[in-house]
UniProtKB/TrEMBL annotation:
Keywords: Cell membrane, Cell shape, Cell wall biogenesis/degradation, Membrane, Peptidoglycan synthesis, Transmembrane, Transmembrane helix. Its main location: membrane. Residues 345-675 form the Penicillin-binding protein transpeptidase domain. It is found in: Cell membrane; Membrane. This is Penicillin-binding protein. It comes from Candidatus Avoscillospira stercoripullorum.
Length: 695
């Protein structure tokens, strides 16, 4: 028994010893593992990266996405990891050479010219960046007034740039080393250095294959244009100008290198389109291995902006305008083939009852997706494709202004719409002063034809200058100016995009324009020219369209707008919505209302009307007016055309203007396709795209 008891006791003790040994080994293993992890993470680094929020989308009135975003990659360099790697300069030079080979632009803010003799380029940078540069110099104890050449010599020595490298290679290394080192200075709150932006997946693979320590990838988005149309409306994005960060965007919480709207809708609705950036925390080992990543602040995309324009109408307008101008350039118009020097123009259409801009086309134009690639060529091209002729160019309206003179004569000088004037061809009232303006039909016929005796409605239809010389002299300049102002000419339209307000011909304007010349006085000759839309009258095509809509509304002018509504990025919340807003109201007599309506309809329907041969028989009743405007730049006259439809229940108002277009009637060929698309039986705003049409 004692022997058996001793055996059992020995086995039990042995088991206890085995268990204890196992626990001891496990504890040792755990401790060893923790020690290894501690050693492994002892040299870790935590970095914080600003994550750009995706910009909101831009859509047309039907929900078609005009501008969206696509995934993109940026290449960042983390200094801590990069300089822990072997041979930083050699690795960096290899990386830069590959970027050159792939055609990747390297980002750098080194404020020194790229070639000798080195000069500072500080004026190209914001005051904030200039301050950072001064801090950089002070951190090294260098003279803030040192020359650019001395700076480059010092940096080349500090960064241990090999002497056998060319000046070009040395500059490239220094420019990147500068970006890396300036981010290590206390008091300079810059994000990690972005070596290159918008790198393709193929380029990314080639770069990462180099295995350069500290080079990491940032996934982001860039703008993507889904249409080749509406370039001047949509605009583009880009980096901030020199002082914009300090003056505008800093207080809005933008990063210094944030992309912002530069022109068009991108600029006008920046507050909605720009999202809220996020903040990403990343823990790295000295080898570059990522231990942990987490968002301290999740990026929130910008809001979506829905515009009032219709892409189908916009396409129709741009194509029709281009076709008419190119046809003029090739063939001219009339017996004298005038208009071959036509080079630019615009067409704008607005909703009569709301002021919404349905289309705004400028010619020549460009593909917004290729703005940066084609910029140099576009900036030197004939007709200035980068310029928005619809909102920024101002032109003498010509005869489309005659409704202003007619309304003023009826409502302030007692004229009636049946008041008759006999056209004698040459207006001789001021012949003793050497001033004898003539009616266009007289000059174009070689002095053989006049309009005869016409009333005001007939004078509008045939565009009789002689009639409106008389009407203009019958009423004060102040009353004519008031009518023009209330109808929106020479006044802000209220549109969100930058616009030119132009000017009206009156005594104050002339005194200002001719100040100090001895020609400041407003005389009767000025009144004559102003009464037919000449003199100093100068308005944008957008203003002309709003003016046409105001005539259609019997004097009520609405604020023009490109904004339909703004919705959150997920379409769950309505952020803003445009409502019709009346800017001015001209009280027009029934006589004036009837005269304008009947005269503009007669322009289309009467055999002698200036738009008869172009639009007579159109299935929807139209009211229109043609115009021809002289100018001082030589060549063919400018051409203008306005209309609204239906004439008995106006919905759409259109204005067309072509520089050196010769005569306004020809511009009806721009208007007709727009009307066809607008009044399509399938749908008011539906447009059928032909095969292979790029949207």
């Amino acid at each position: 028994m004692n022997r058996r008891a001793r055996f059992r006791t020995s086995v039990f003790i042995a088991l206890i010893l085995v268990v204890m040994a196992l626990f001891t080994f496990r504890l040792y293993a755990l401790q060893s593992s923790r020690d290894e992890e501690a050693i492994r993470t002892a040299n870790s680094l935590t970095i914080w990266t600003n994550v750009d929020a995706a910009r909101g989308q831009i859509l047309d009135r039907n929900g078609t996405v005009l501008v969206g975003n696509r995934a993109s990659y940026n290449i960042l360099i983390i200094s801590y990891v990069f300089f822990n790697g072997p041979s930083p300069n050699e690795s960096l030079l290899e990386l830069l050479n590959l970027c050159d080979e792939l055609g990747i632009d390297v980002e750098s803010n080194l404020p020194v010219s790229e070639t000798k003799p080195y000069t500072y380029t500080l004026d190209d940078y914001s005051s904030v960046w200039q301050g950072y540069f001064r801090t950089f110099l002070a951190s090294r104890g260098w003279d803030p007034d040192m020359s650019a050449q001395n700076l480059m010599n010092n940096l080349r020595a500090d960064y241990n740039i090999p002497a056998d490298l060319s000046d070009e290679e040395a500059y490239r290394l220094i420019s990147v080393r500068f970006e890396l080192s300036i981010r290590t200075i206390e008091g300079i709150p810059l994000d990690n250095y972005c070596l290159a932006k918008d790198v393709s997946s193929e380029e990314l693979a080639a770069i990462m294959e180099l295995g350069v320590p500290g080079v990491i990838v940032e996934t982001t988005t860039v703008r993507e244009y889904n249409t080749a149309y509406a370039a001047h409306i949509l605009g583009h994005t880009g980096a901030m100008e020199a002082d914009e960060y300090q003056e505008i965007y800093k207080d809005l919480g933008y990063a210094m290198d944030a992309v912002v709207g530069r022109e068009g809708v991108e600029y006008a609705f920046e507050e909605y389109l720009h999202g809220t950036d996020g903040l990403l925390e990343t823990t790295l080992l000295s080898t570059g291995e990522v231990l942990e990543q987490k968002y301290l602040k999740t990026p929130e995309p910008g809001d979506n902006v829905e515009l009032t324009i219709d892409l189908g109408l916009q396409m129709t307008a741009e194509n029709a305008l281009a076709q008419v101008i190119q046809n003029l350039q090739e063939n001219g118009t009339g017996s004298k083939q005038e208009g071959k020097d036509a080079d630019s123009g615009a067409v704008v259409a607005v909703d009569v009852k709301t002021g919404e801009v349905l289309l705004s086309a400028s010619y020549p134009t460009y593909d917004p997706a290729r703005y940066r690639e084609d910029f140099n060529e576009l900036s030197e091209a004939d007709g200035n494709p980068l310029y928005d002729h619809a909102l920024l160019a101002t032109y003498a309206p010509g005869s489309i202004y005659k409704m202003v003179t007619g309304i003023a004569a009826m409502d302030y000088a007692g004229w009636g719409r049946y008041r008759q004037v006999t056209d004698l061809g040459v207006y001789t009232k001021y012949a003793d002063q050497g001033y004898t303006p003539a009616c266009h039909i007289w000059t174009s016929s070689g002095g053989t034809r006049t309009h005869g005796t016409v009333n005001m409605m007939q004078a509008l239809a045939v565009s009789c200058n002689y009639y409106f010389y008389e009407a203009g002299l019958a009423v004060s300049t102040e009353d004519v100016d008031y009518v023009a102002k209330q109808l929106g000419l020479g006044e802000p339209t209220g549109v969100e995009l930058p616009e030119n307000t132009g000017m009206r011909a009156n005594a104050e304007t002339k005194a200002e324009v001719y100040a100090g010349s001895g020609m400041e006085a407003w005389v009767d000759g000025d009144k004559l020219q102003a009464s037919i839309g000449q003199s100093l009258n100068a308005f944008t095509p957008l203003q002309m369209a709003c003016y046409t809509a105001a005539l259609a509304n019997q004097g009520t002018r609405y604020k023009a707008t490109f904004l339909s509504r703004v919705v959150s990025w997920d379409y769950q919340d309505l952020i803003a919505e445009s409502e019709p807003e009346i800017l001015s109201q001209l009280k027009m007599s029934d006589e004036a209302i009837a005269c304008v309506s009947e005269g503009m309809q007669a322009t289309v329907n009467d055999y002698s009307g200036t738009a008869f041969s172009y639009l007579n028989g159109y299935p929807i009743p139209l009211a229109a007016k043609t115009g021809t405007a002289q100018h001082g730049s030589g060549g063919s006259d400018n051409a203008s055309f306005i209309c609204y439809a239906p004439a008995d229940d106006p919905q759409i108002a259109i204005a067309v203007y072509v520089e050196h277009g010769a005569q306004g009637g020809n511009l009806a060929n721009v208007v007709r396709p727009i009307l066809d698309a607008y009044f399509s039986q399938e749908s008011k705003y539906e447009t059928t795209y032909s095969e292979n049409t790029v949207q």
